[in-house]
Amino acid sequence: PRAPVSFDWDVVDDPDRPGRRRVVADCVMPAAYDGPPGYVHGGMIALCFDEMLGIANIANGCPGMTGTLTVRYRRPTPLYEPLRWEAWLEQVEGRRILSHATVMHGDTLCAEAEGLFVTGRPESRAVYFPDVDPAPDSPQM
């Protein structure tokens, strides 16, 4: 079994986008997530990006499901080293939510991601999530 990654994440004001929130997380990836020797498996990076982007969307009142996730691997992401993850909401157009994220090792950009999320139509939400009531103030995109 894989050891869980413990993210020390927080939701903060986005300094680049007034009125929006950004998710930041610090973690060290253990040996259970190895890919190439000494580095994190790319699939684990994609999984973490998907989670962080989803949290950023929720923090901005725009929950949705992943439509596409594009990851650009810039440099190998080291195991056993402190990593800084950041995710933010970029744009909302109707039901489409565009978000971005990065993972840094010090000043080195290891990977970045762009996620396109989609908010379901009310009739679709009723089919897929019949036991979940939408929050009264959730956006109807």
Helix content: 10-25%
How far do the termini sit from each other?
A: 39 Å
The low-pLDDT segments are: 136-141
Mean pLDDT figure: 88
Structural class: alpha+beta
Can you write the helix and strand succession as a string? EEHEEEEH
Order of neighbouring strands in the sheet with most strands? 1-2-4-5-6-3
Write the layout of secondary structure elements.
Elements: E1 8-13, E2 21-28, H1 42-59, E3 65-73, E4 82-93, E5 96-105, E6 108-118, H2 122-128
Antiparallel strand pairs: 1-2, 2-4, 3-6, 4-5, 5-6
Briefly, what is this?
The chain is an alpha+beta fold. The chain is built from two helices and six strands; from the N terminus they run E-E-H-E-E-E-E-H.
Question: Main traits of this protein?
Answer:
six-stranded antiparallel β-sheet, 141 residues, globular, 6 strands, 2 helices, alpha+beta
What does this structure look like?
With 141 residues, the protein is an alpha+beta fold. The chain is built from 2 helices and 6 strands, in the order ββαββββα. A 6-stranded antiparallel β-sheet has the order 1-2-4-5-6-3, with helices on one face. Strand 4 and strand 5 form a beta hairpin. The C terminus is likely disordered.
